[in-house]
Each structure stands twice: as C-alpha cells, then as structure tokens.
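Attaching the record inline, Q. Sequence:
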Amino acid sequence: MKHILAFAILTSTMLILTSCDDISSNKVVLAQDQFIEKQVIFFTDERNVSREIPYYDAIIELKKQYPDHFKQLKVVSLNTKTTNDIADTPPASPAIVVVEDNQIICKVEGHKSKENIIKPVSRAIQTWEQ
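Structure, as predicted:
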C-alpha cells in the first residue's frame, strides 16, 4: 500500500528514466520535431509498477539534488503511441534517459538499484552545469 501511494504521488508530480550508456548516436525526436536542449525522460510501464520503485526513489533523490533540471521531467508511458513519437527505439521499461542537444547522453534501463540509477544520471546532469 505504501508503494502504491508513493507511485500515485510521484506520477501526479513528476516522471523520469534508467542505466547510463554513452550512446551519443541515438537521437530523440519529438512528434512536433522540437529540439530538446536538456531533458530528463522517464519511460514507464503502468502494468509493471513494482519494478519501477527504485526509479521513483531515485527520481525523488535526484530532484532534491537538481531541482531545476527536474522541473520539466517528462514521463512517457510505454503503452501508448506517444512512445514512438518520443524515441526512434524506445528503451526497455523502466528507463531514464538524459538528453542534451537531441542526443542521449545517459540511458539507464531495466532492473537497477536506486544507487545504480542515481550515479550515472547525476554524472550526466553535472555536465549541464559546466
């Protein structure tokens, strides 16, 4: 019950993504062909919420550390058509993707611990502050 409440609160206030690979060749494309300067995107699968708990915990921690960067967190459900409008190849769920200049600079996906989500995403966001 505690996790369901946390999920409900988190989904109503924010959305995010997973494991970092330096995949600079992956492009992120919006349906409106908008340029993404800096964005954190969380890919979620509402049918498998229990696997996403470490991601929500990581998002809460990261939002405390980088409140300005998480104000416009984008949450994308993998069960909708919007997923294909956001990414050429959607990541596995759950996932957090950090995008800079329409390039994926960090991708964390699949079953990870909170710490293994926070570390790579933090490193990617820290490059924004340089």
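The first helix runs from residue 2 to 13. Helices lie at 2-13, 53-65, 82-86, 114-128.

More tomorrow.
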